[in-house]
Design a protein that fits this description.
The complex is a heterodimer of chains A (305) and B (529). Chain A has 305 residues and is mostly helical. Chain A is built from 13 helices and no strands. In chain B, 31% of the residues lie in helices and 20% in strands. Chain B has 16 helices and 17 strands. The relative contact order of chain B is 0.14. Classes of the chains: A mainly alpha (305), B alpha+beta (529).
Amino acid sequence: MLSYALRRLLSAIPTLFIIVTASFFMMRLAPGGPFDQERTLEATVMANLNATFGLDKPLWQQYGIYLSNLFQGDMGPSFIYRDKRVHEILAEGLPISVQLGATALILALVLGALLGSIAALRQNTKTDFAVIAVATFGITVPNFVVAPVLSLVFAVILSWLPAQGWGQWNQMILPVIALALPQIAVVTRLIRGSMIEALRSDHVRTARAYGLPTHMVVGKHALRAAILPAISYLGPAAAALLTGSIVVEQVFNLPGIGRYFVIGALNRDYTLVMGTVVIVAVFVVVFNLIVDLLYAVLDPRVRYD
Amino acid sequence: MMTLSIKTTLLSATILAGLTSAASAATYMRGNDGNPETLDQHKTSTVAEANILRDLYEGLVVYTPTAEIAPGVAEEWEVTDDGLTYTFKLRDDAAWSNGDPVTAGDFVYSLQRIMTPETGAKYANILYPIQNAEAINKGEMEPSELGVKALDDKTLEITLAQATPFFIELLTHQTGLPVHPASVDAHGADFVQPGNMVSNGAYSLTSNILNDKIVLTKNANFHDADNVAIEEVNYLPFEDRATCVRAWEAGEVHSCSDLPAEDIERLRGQHDTAVRVVPYLGTYYYALNHKDDTLADPEVRQALSMAIDREFLADEIFQGTMVPAESFVPPGIGNYAAGSPVTEYFDMSMLDREDKAAEILAAKGISPDSPVTIELMYNTSENHKNAATAIADMWSNLGVNVEFNVRDASAHYAHLRDKGDFDVARAGWIGDYSDPQNFLFMVESDNDGFNYANYDNAEYDGLMDQAAAETDLDKRAALLQQAEGLFMRDLPFIPLLYYSSRSLVSPDLQGWEDNIQNVHATRYLSLPQ
């Protein structure tokens, strides 16, 4: 399995290279540049800025410089946040996004598995319908509605929790809920479906026939099979969660990196966009690998040699 | 009885939460427009940066709480009769946060640094009136040749290329703030980092985390430190204005620097005096391309302007946060004793204006039966979209059909800058200094960057040149008024609305004076218990 993992990681290098190259040139195809703002800059000033940032060089040369810097772990200067380099910006924000995303992810997996299992065990009862109704609601109501409503109710009206900011533990609660809710809903539905199937499978029936108590049957035998679809869903979802969400960050004023995808692209902050693309690409590759490895652990039928 | 006690508990909990979350009363939690792009006064360009830099540094002159110019590091200054040479006498007790005295040499160093091409200063051109500044910024001359000299440690002489009556106004801009030369030499571009930065204002930099907060602490070496009441300022960047409003209502911030228009009415109802909507030095306008066949006709342009119901835009689209514009230069601007010229049709009723506009266009063969189509270009934004839709509707009654062309801000302004083809384009201008020249210079025929309209009128250029050479402020104002008269006749831009600044200010925060520049240095504010 180790050699399989290594092979997968090696094959990720050309993938990343293609992603970097494609996004570098696509970014440059967008009309306008980082210094085109509401206020047009004086021609001299513009020329000085372009020279400072090397934008006056031919594109292939800029690409070469970017790649060689990237190999040395330098993602270049941000065109907008001029006091920092891109890897410094990402290093400041990434731990915050990861902390929020990981908490939301664990919450989603635990609560989703619990609710999904309960619904499956009580299939077609009131409990089942209630869980499904809540889950459907959770999937359909978007983040940009849930987040401000949470903040309005719990911070402004009830004053139980802070409305925004970062640094204290209680400032994490609302953003984590906002991030986790839609994921809980999806995981619940996935688990419910696969659990119903698992409960009817031969090995679960055998376990029951041996007289094992329900919590053992469900927890040890059924859940192991039922959780597989949720795991394959959560792989890419984790990459998205851990790299932040612009909506949740803006609503709760959090210094994560989710906003840089959108803001960087709108500002034509080429290097910042490239930096976030690289981070997300790495996360997606790594999490897909983790999912595949988990499959081997959880499903005895899957083996990598 | 029961409900009453629950209410009291909730109420006291609210008050308690408000007190604790706003930290100790000596800490001012200050909502800012967004994260500053830089804290380097020579690379700066945004209002969010100006707010922070104003607290960190003191320039030769400063703004009072009501935005009048007052002595800063310079306690007095003299101008020669030809308006070319300014001599500043620096105050003896001006000091840097590390105790070094602030000297004339520091200003020489700073002004040379902003003009050095390698600095990549976005606003270098604002100081081009200084002798040789433009040539240095172009790399044609050495920075040492700049018209700025230290006669001694406390006397600074600045020589201008030509008389500039608003030069002192220019020095209020954050680009005129000094840097501490030894820190810049030691740390290079990193002199702005906490721990490296040495500043000469009421506050010094303690920490700076991108998109989280910037913490400033009172500078004990500041010459007026005795009168600075607030010990610590936390600048919180709010990209989403609604988030700041919720934080304010939850008692987590003392002031917000902007508000969503749709919230204004509710906030006014609930927190009357906290909502400050104040005229601001800016104009929202549509540029008309004078090279376009239809728009080349000045009467057509007049008709288009006449038919726009600005009251509707201000009240309905912008919820009373903008003011209908009847001139390009906003009212309340400095050095404009004469004021903007009056344009007749603004005295007519809207119905009469529409009839007149229809009449003018009918004479040109344009009517709903034989319509023309023009393209209206704007940058993505809900408000710009609503305004454009409303205006298109007003024009459609005259036989002018509108097609929209929407791009994001970078693409929109790049298109205008590159002289791309367009008919009508939305834009806005916020003055950098309080002088009508800062608005009217935009459509001089040789202004490549801003003259989107391709307006080319020798008479207008002549008046602007005359005004530039005139040192008598009243005569100069009269010349500028004539120029604006031509502007309103020829309409390179159709002025639509004047901007307002919108702030939310806690009643706990004392000393906040509404002003047209929307400047509120923390040193004048206080948070009494």
